[in-house]
Amino acid sequence: QELLVASGGAVVQAGGSLTLSCAGSGRAFWGYAMGWFRQAPGKGREFVAAINWNGDWSSYAESVKGRFTLSKHNANNTWYLHMSRVNPEDTAVYYCNPSSDGARWRRSDYFGQGTQVTVSS
Predict the structure, then answer these.
(1) 113 and 1 in contact (C-beta within 8 Å)?
(2) Which residue, of 28, 47, 70, 108, has the greatest Cβ tally within 10 A?
(3) Around Cβ 65, how many Cβ atoms within 10 Å?
(4) Taking Cα atoms as reference points, which of 114, 118, 61, 47 lies closest to residue 88?
(5) Cα–Cα distance for residue pair 42/92, rounded to 1 Å
(6) Counting runs of H as helices and runs of E as strands, what totals does the chain give?
(7) Alpha carbon distance 56, 74 (integer Å)
(8) Residues 114-120: what's their mean pLDDT?
């Protein structure tokens, strides 16, 4: 059983919006910072965005800056990736990447279960 599960992936038209969720099981990853990665077919996994536990620090890849935003719901132990103005290049499997350093996200070796986003043109 995965402790961290991304969900919300769907087929969406170019220019549309979508929100992905990343939920930790129970209190797993409580106090963690969270990053998002994606992997398109035939490509390596690439960084998308990250947010710290307090929500006062975040970072975005240039390719998504101004289109994607992050939020979190501490009580539900859930992180969100809000995607807008999506384009076909956003098509990928999206994964969460937890960081035990809650103040500032650092890439870890654990990637939870991913969710597929497909953008149709």
Answers:
(1) no
(2) 70
(3) 11
(4) 118
(5) 10
(6) 0, 10
(7) 13
(8) 97
Tell me the pLDDT tens digit for each residue of 48-68.
999 999 999 999 999 999 999
Amino acid, single-letter form, for residue 23: A
User: Residue 113 gets which letter from DSSP?
Assistant: B
Nearest-5° Cα angle at 73, 70 to 78: 80
Structure confidence by residue, pLDDT tens digits, 7-57 = 999 999 999 999 999 998 888 888 999 999 999 999 999 999 999 999 999
With 90 as the cut, is the pLDDT of residue 118 above it? yes
Burial of 27 (0-12, 13-18, 19+ CB in 10 A): exposed
